[in-house]
TrEMBL record, chain A:
The lineage of its organism: Bacteria, Pseudomonadati, Pseudomonadota, Alphaproteobacteria, Rhodobacterales. This is Sarcosine oxidase delta subunit. Its EC number is 1.5.3.1. Keywords: Oxidoreductase. GO terms for biological process: tetrahydrofolate metabolic process.
Automatic annotation (TrEMBL), chain B:
This is Sarcosine oxidase, alpha subunit family, heterotetrameric form. Keywords: Oxidoreductase. Residues 485-569 form the SoxA A3 domain. NCBIfam families: soxA. Residues 874-960 form the Aminomethyltransferase C-terminal domain. It comes from Rubellimicrobium thermophilum DSM 16684. GO terms for biological process: tetrahydrofolate metabolic process.
TrEMBL record, chain C:
It comes from the Bacteria. GO terms for molecular function: sarcosine oxidase activity. It comes from Rubellimicrobium thermophilum DSM 16684. InterPro entries: TrmE/GcvT-like (IPR027266). This is Sarcosine oxidase gamma subunit. Its EC number is 1.5.3.1. Keywords: Oxidoreductase.
Length: 94, 968, 186
């Protein structure tokens, strides 16, 4: 596959490491959330046959974590964003 | 030596003669020949034996679709089985052997299978080898293994090299027949970067095998002129002998270039083949079409081949497959074979056209065709004496690569064949015969159109040269019902019409079931000639149309690929790169034994004169360190520079314990969890400045920890001011351990490092040997007074030599990973065996380190019920009750008297060493409720090695539990 | 420092130069290297300080030459800065004084082995080693790529001039990969 990197343009997926569902960005606060909430965060994932937001790390590149919106059936890549920007947009700070 | 079947013409160089052997018999051929064309020229039709029935077989094709003529090429280490004689380029000295026969090709003992064919029908494996159950491993499997497979491998290491490579272009054209050449020419003339790849060693495709003209010139000459024009364009890359094997995602194509297969031995340094990864957003599949046979009784005899192949041998190679030939066709194209052969002076004794009600119903000639029997429209039968029969059942477009993203071909009744459907790999267009456009004019036109469409070329389309544009006239005929012998469909896997009928009878009627049940299309040729006939017959039998019946689709690779090609250079010593430590050259001088740890080569131990067994060296290294001082290269530990105003807060989040409170100039042991509460990694992290830390990781996890920290930094806390960079390789780092460690270091360190000035867990920037920047950490893995000292890597070798020279009075030794392991087990420090990805801080006896006062990765889930079970595993030390008793890592804890079954299992030994200090084996292990079993006696049982040892459970801190030595 | 004699990444006293046909592979031990990363929200301060100090901070995927400092982009708001080793062995200290608190700076000199490749056309060699579309990318292009499993920074100075930075501990493996490819191609 080719991942269109938001900064570096098209890059071979061989340069990346795959992590999984981009909902991993939405980590609860450990000082307020309990085991149930963390359990859901870590283990309750959707596994769609179709559009999926997932995390890829450009390990053999610029070390950016990316949120890739990809169709898991056709492998078509619909959108690629820097995970840092997605995290900020979802309200994550320090 | 004559070539009795060589006739005039062809694209071979008759001025040169090549000598080769087949089954030890010498023959001659010419440059431009394939092994098959040269053998046919020499009157050799029998080239192999079939897979199951060992039927005598000859080539049916002149290309890569060949199911029958599979041979072994070369001998010794370069022996290569299952090579298709129809694509093997002839070279001087080629050695070829037939395969799947014993004792000889003409007399094959296993041909008894053919007589027993009633037992070997489709599904015979499933039916025959079911019972008795005990026979499976002892009788059936060895028997099947002996009989299975075609050729044999050399069992020697392949002496040749295989490269990999990467290419980029605007347009990849797959196939260099008329459509592909026209596409490449159109794109090339427009100035675009083009790769034109063809598996043949001569570009031109069918133009080389036909007699018709393009414009004013012969088709083959037009092809040669076009290739010459393309070759003159610097932005066009012509790749002959290059098979595109797959269409992968997003415009990535795989291709195998056979660089040296046409040479006896590759030139020095040159690869045998190259596996190319081609990046192209646009591609044109112009792979042509493959002719299919018609099934009739005994249609597999050597000498019976596809009509187009018979014609190709005559036109391209100047070979008549026989002196007297006949043609059996259901379409006009087959008639061309008869016309071309007649024009070449070959005697065509019969043309059997099924459209007139004429069919071939039987043949004779066990080792080669002697005669055919036909039945005419009036039902009369007649026999002809012939040496070759050309059969044409129509042409199947080579849709394979178009199917690689699961696109299903669609049925085109006009040509009675499957053609590419509307779906397909994005960016891949299809042109020429591959698209079902079977005339030469059509190929040129669609090739040009496809290139213009792919590249959005504007402007007037160029004038195409004149070429034949004959319509396809075909009346489908899949098999001939008359006649008594078996009628073959898939000749490589010996699938017959009868097998398809059996599949229908047993209700395996879907194409996928038909394939698996009969093995139709599952051989190395992927059923290129046989599949469509098989499913068309199934359609007839079930009363469904062919579109209703459907077709199986194709996966990469398009043609077989040698495993060596996929491995490339990554084999043997070059399987992966090595990483060498700064002390590597010094250790080599000392005769060190090295061990691979990931990619690193680390010193395992360094034998001294007189030491004959590894334990002697390791024991000596441990004792010398504990007695005076030892040095160990610990550069391999991951080092990550962490800076920024939030660096401390960041570390609090990624470590279970607290680092923001660590004073500048100090270091601390850190425990890193995964979010699920399991221990991920550990190491010491030092604070070198207000906003500057340096973290160490285990050698194994250096990359994974860095990736995890980047995840935390970018995805979880994007507003933290923290920057990361790996410094693992920038610093040569040595552990200096033992009672004399400080005294030795004082010889090289420029500053005061007395206990008062540089106490336990101090860390900081220093200088050595008169001003060289360095770092010093007072940390201990061995339990001794110990430091880690780091200098820029280029000075590491010199620092080691300097420490050994200046500290000679302390008899320093350099110890390897084994001694390191002994000392850490003695001390109860966790490492690989304990950091096994299943264990928590609590399991390791480090539960108190997980701070609940702050949020950190893994903190919450580490408190889950299952992970906090008071009866759960705890790290313990272990020693044998009898000090001569032996322990083995992996042994399981059992109560005395308990049966060695899983239900009684209480844990296992994670690491075991011999402690020279204590004088017996010791081990670490995870034991259920181990913290409450200290002092108890149990058994360590290992059913694999037959050990059952009585052991005493100890605290994991088996050496200097109070830590007096390391604070000394 | 004089008392400690450095070793090159290939374990020698002097850098190695090898030739294969038209190709020269020259190990470079005379380059000092440091990473410079902007502190959070301090990019403008860093840019100003860098401009004043003559430290180029080129755009993504680019290398910019200068005297004494050259630099190439390695990650968002992060660069590797090059300088002559003889005058800038303490490059991290020197950059810290020049750029102040606006950047996190880390010595990288000995984390890498540097090879300069020179030949009339390096494209045939590089297409056997990595997926960079070498003929198309411009001079001044800098990227991380993979060669025989090794992560490598590749800087194109021209069609016939490339600088590679590979992991120092794998210097021998990287040189072996380069030489093997050279024998295969030239």
């Amino acid at each position: 596959m080719i991942i269109p990197h938001p900064i570096l343009g098209p890059r071979d997926a061989q340069e990346f490491v795959y992590l999984g569902d981009a909902s991993l960005i939405d980590r609860p606060d450990g000082m307020t959330a309990g085991i149930e909430e963390f359990h859901d965060y870590l283990y309750q994932r959707t596994n769609p046959a179709g559009e999926h937001q997932e995390l890829w790390y450009h390990e053999q590149g610029d070390r950016s974590w990316l949120v890739v919106t990809r169709n898991t059936v056709t492998h078509e890549i619909l959108k690629v964003e820097l995970a840092r920007d997605v995290a900020r947009a979802r309200g994550r700070t320090k | 030596m004559t070539q009795p079947n060589r006739i005039a013409g062809g694209q071979i160089d008759r001025t040169r003669t090549l000598r080769f052997t087949f089954d030890g018999i010498p023959y001659t051929g010419h440059p431009g020949d394939t092994l098959a064309s040269a053998l046919l020229a020499n009157g050799v039709r029998l080239m192999g034996r079939s897979f199951k029935y060992h039927r005598p077989r000859g080539p049916i094709s002149a290309g890569s679709e060949e199911p029958n003529a599979l041979v072994e090429l070369r001998s010794g280490a370069r022996q290569e089985p299952n090579t298709r004689a129809t694509v093997a380029e002839l070279f001087d000295g080629l050695e070829a052997k037939s395969q799947n026969r014993w004792p000889s090709l003409r007399l094959d003992a296993m041909a008894i299978n053919d007589r027993l064919n009633a037992f070997f029908t489709a599904g015979f494996y499933y039916k025959t080898f079911m019972w008795p159950r005990s026979f499976w491993e002892r009788v059936y499997e060895p028997m099947i293994r002996r009989a299975a497979g075609l050729g044999s491998v050399s069992r020697e290491e392949d002496p040749d090299a295989y490269d990999k490579g990467f290419l980029h272009c605007d347009l990849l054209v797959i196939g260099a027949g008329p459509a592909g050449l026209m596409a490449a020419l159109t794109a090339g003339r427009a100035g675009r970067r083009v790769i034109l790849a063809d598996e043949d060693f001569r570009m031109g495709g069918r133009l080389n095998a036909e007699t018709f003209a393009i414009g004013n010139t012969a088709g083959a000459d037009w092809a040669a002129a076009t290739v010459a024009e393309l070759a003159s364009m610097p932005h066009v890359r012509l790749m002959t002998r290059t098979a595109v094997i797959g269409a992968f995602d997003h415009g990535i194509y795989g291709a195998v270039e056979r660089v040296s297969d046409h040479l006896a031995v590759p030139p020095p340094g040159k690869p045998r083949q190259i596996l190319w990864r081609i990046y192209s957003q646009r591609a044109i599949l112009a792979g042509g079409a493959t002719e299919r046979p018609i099934a009739f009784a005994n249609n597999d005899r050597p000498g019976i081949m596809l009509a187009g192949a018979l014609r190709a041998y005559a036109n391209r190679w100047g070979v008549a497959a026989g002196q007297r030939v006949a043609v059996f066709t259901n379409n006009d194209d087959g008639l061309r074979t008869a016309a071309d052969l007649k024009a070449k002076g070959v005697e065509v004794v019969a043309v059997i056209d099924s459209r007139k009600g004429e069919v071939v119903i039987d043949t004779r000639g066990r080792l080669g065709l002697k005669a055919i029997t036909i039945r005419d429209g009036a039902g009369r039968t007649r026999s002809f004496s012939v040496e070759a029969l050309g059969v044409s059942g129509g042409w199947n477009p080579n849709v394979n690569i178009h199917s690689h993203h699961r696109a299903r071909p669609v049925w085109d009744a006009a040509i009675a064949a499957f053609v590419p459907g509307p779906e397909g790999p994005p960016g891949l267009l299809v042109a020429g015969a591959a698209a079902g456009v079977l005339s030469t004019h059509g190929a040129l036109r669609t090739g040009c159109d496809a290139a213009r469409a792919a590249l959005d070329l504007t402007g007037a389309a160029p004038d195409l040269p004149q070429a034949e544009d004959a319509p396809v006239r075909i009346s489908p005929l899949w098999h001939v019902d008359h006649g008594r012998g078996r009628a073959w469909i898939d000749q490589q896997n010996d699938v017959t019409v009868k097998d398809v009928k059996l599949a229908k009878q047993e209700n395996f009627t879907s194409v996928e079931h038909l394939k698996r049940y009969t093995t139709l299309g599952m051989a190395t040729d992927q059923g290129k000639t046989g599949n469509v006939i098989g499913l068309a017959i199934m359609a007839e039998l079930t009363g469904r149309s062919i579109p209703e019946t459907g077709t199986t689709i194709y996966r990469p690779p398009y043609t077989p690929v040698a495993l060596g090609t996929l491995a490339g250079r990554s084999r043997g010593k070059e399987f992966k790169p090595y990483r060498l430590t700064p002390s590597h050259y010094w250790a080599q001088e000392q005769g060190a034994v090295f061990v691979e740890v990931g990619m690193w080569l680390r010193t395992q131990w360094i034998p001294k004169a007189g030491e004959t067994e590894w334990r002697q060296s390791v024991d000596r290294e441990v004792l010398a360190t504990r007695k005076s001082v030892g040095i160990c290269d610990v550069t391999t530990l991951g080092k990550i520079d962490i800076q920024g105003t939030d660096a401390g807060a960041f570390l609090d989040r990624v470590y279970a314990n607290t680092f923001s409170t660590l004073p500048v100039g100090k270091c601390r042991y850190g425990l890193m969890l995964r979010e699920d509460g399991i221990v991920f990694d550990d190491g010491t992290t030092a604070r070198l400045g207000e906003h500057e830390y340096v973290m160490t990781t285990t050698t194994a996890n250096a990359v994974a920890v860095f990736r995890h920290l980047e995840f935390c930094r970018q995805c979880l806390w994007p507003e933290m001011d923290v920057q990361l960079i790996s410094t693992t390789e920038a610093w040569a780092q040595f552990s200096v351990a033992g009672p004399n460690a400080r005294k030795l270091l004082e010889k090289v360190v420029d500053q005061d490092i007395s206990d008062a000035a540089f106490p336990y867990m101090a860390a900081g920037n220093i200088t050595v040997c008169g001003g060289l920047r360095a770092r010093l950490f007072r940390i201990s893995f061995s339990g001794e007074l110990a430091y880690e000292i780091a200098v820029p890597t280029r000075y590491g070798d010199a620092l080691l030599r300097e420490m050994l020279a200046r500290g000679a009075e302390f008899d320093p030794i350099v110890y390897g990973t084994e001694a390191l392991g002994v000392m850490r087990v003695e001390k109860g420090h966790v490492a690989g065996g304990e950091l096994n990805g299943q264990s928590t801080a609590l399991n390791m006896g480090l539960g108190r380190m997980v701070s609940k006062k702050k949020d950190s990765i893994g903190m919450v889930l580490s408190q889950r019920e299952g992970l906090t079970d008071p009866e759960g595993y705890r790290l313990v030390g272990v020693k044998p009750v009898d000090r001569n008793g032996k322990l083995t890592a992996g042994s399981h804890f059992l109560e005395k008297g308990a049966a060695p079954v899983a239900a009684n299992d209480l844990g296992w030994l994670t690491s075991k060493v011999y402690s020279p200090h204590l004088g017996h084996d010791i081990a670490l292990g995870y034991l259920k409720a181990g913290d409450r079993r200290i002092g108890q006696r149990m058994r360590a049982v290992n059913l694999l090695s037959g050990q059952d040892t009585e052991v005493e459970i100890l605290s994991p801190h088996m050496f200097d539990p109070e830590g007096e030595r390391l604070r000394g | 420092m004089a008392s400690l004699q450095p070793l090159t990444a290939l374990g020698r006293r002097e850098p190695v130069t090898v030739t294969h046909g038209p190709l020269t592979i020259a190990e470079r031990t005379d380059v000092a290297l440091a990473s410079v990363a902007a502190r959070k929200g301090r990019m403008a301060d860093l840019a100003a300080a860098a401009r004043a100090a003559g430290v180029p901070l080129p755009a993504p995927a680019a290398h910019q030459s200068g005297t004494p400092y050259s630099a190439f982009w390695i990650a968002p708001e992060m660069w590797f800065v090059e300088a002559p080793f003889a005058s800038h062995e303490l490059i991290a200290e020197m950059l810290k004084s020049a750029l102040g608190e606006a950047a996190s700076i880390t010595e990288q000199t000995d984390a890498w082995v540097a090879f300069d490749l020179a030949a009339p056309d390096l494209a045939p060699l590089l297409e056997r080693l990595c997926n960079v579309d070498f003929p198309v990318v411009p001079a001044g292009y800098a990227t991380r790529t993979v060669m025989e499993h090794l992560g490598v920074y590749l800087i194109k100075h021209g069609a016939g001039a490339v600088r590679l930075y590979g992991p120092r501990s794998s210097a021998q493996s990287l040189l072996h990969a380069l030489e093997t490819a050279a024998r295969s191609v030239f």
